[in-house]
Design goal:
Elements lengths: L1 E3 L2 H4 L4 E5 L7 H11 L4 E8 L2 H4 L10 H10 L4 E6 L2 H4 L3 H10 L3 E7 L12 H6 L3 E5 L7 H9 L3 H8 L3 E8 L4 H5 L4 E4 L10 E7 L2 E8 L10 E6 L10 E11 L7 H17 L5
Parallel strand pairs: 1-4, 2-3, 2-5, 3-4, 5-6
Antiparallel strand pairs: 7-8, 7-12, 8-11, 9-10, 9-12, 10-11
Helix pairs in contact: 8-9
Length: 288
């Protein structure tokens, strides 16, 4: 997939463009992308970074980093992605000016978006305007009950199974592997500790069954209360894995929430609990 940050970098070509923020690339987003992909021209996406709501003073816990969003868009069949920096200047463009400067300049013939999509200064532009400007508009109905805000609420409650149903894939958390306290290795369960981006949503504290790098993983999101910890961490024990992951970006799939985190009366009890987590992880199934 070609990724550009200015329309000129893509140039003008016959394109069918899906437009939106696409945080999480959930099932509703995938329908918009499919509408563009089946329109008969080169499928492309116009998306925004940072999230538009943050520019207007409403912080957003993101479901995906920009890198992960682009990976998921490519997996959905997108061939070109234009990532526009969303700032006050872009937000102030009149809707028709945005359409000419961005969509027309990259050769958009068909434009696909959710039926409630709004854009331009004071969000005055809609799909009807794009039709009047001569674009072949593909209106995509909202998928009932599917939204990024709903996924955020489910993950904040640890409901990773329900979130997967909305996403169309397992929920994820990602970060760069950094050094931790190395207690896991001493206990026989070496973990990859993630430094997660500050604006990325990290699901509810607890122990999860999941996967990373194509291997099952027992995942802890918590403060390590057995050792009196107070800082939230995300760490994963990759089953049947032996290797150095320090400095690597790691995407963890969360398949099932197994239990709350807990403090134990002894390390022997802690090890026994981890062993049970590992066995449950081996038996768990990836959400469809």
């Amino acid at each position: 997939m070609i990724v550009a940050h200015q329309p000129e970098e893509l140039g003008s070509s016959s394109r069918a463009v899906a437009i939106g923020t696409f945080d999480g690339v959930h099932r509703g987003h995938l329908r918009v992308i499919e509408a563009a992909r089946t329109a008969g021209s080169r499928p492309a996406v116009v998306t925004f970074d940072p999230h538009p709501r943050t520019v207007f003073g409403s912080p957003v816990e993101l479901l995906t980093t920009l890198d992960r969003r682009l990976e998921l868009l490519e997996a959905a069949g997108v061939e070109d992605a234009l990532v526009l920096r969303f700032d006050e200047e872009l937000a102030a463009l009149e809707p028709a000016e945005f359409a000419e400067r961005v969509l027309r300049r990259i050769g958009a013939g068909a434009v696909a978006a959710g039926e409630g999509f709004r854009f331009g200064r004071e969000r005055a532009g809609d799909l009807g305007l794009l039709e009047r400007l001569g674009f072949d508009v593909r209106r995509v109905p909202i998928v009932d009950g599917v939204s990024s805000s709903r996924v955020r609420a489910l993950l904040a409650a640890g409901e990773v199974g329900q979130a997967a149903a909305l996403l169309g894939r397992p929920a994820e958390v990602e970060g760069i592997v950094v050094h931790g306290d190395h207690r896991g290795r001493l206990l026989g369960f070496p973990t990859a500790n993630l430094a997660t981006p500050p604006d990325l949503l990290v699901p509810s504290l607890g122990i999860y069954a999941g996967a990373a790098l194509g291997r099952r993983a027992a995942i802890s999101i918590g403060t390590n209360p057995h050792y009196g910890g107070t800082t939230r961490r995300a760490e994963a024990f990759l089953l049947d894995f032996d290797g150095d992951l320090y400095g690597r970006r790691l995407v963890l799939e969360l398949w099932q929430r197994l239990r709350d985190e807990a403090a134990y009366d002894s390390e022997a009890e802690l090890v026994a609990a981890i062993e049970r987590d590992v066995e449950q992880t081996r038996a768990s199934e990836r959400p469809a």
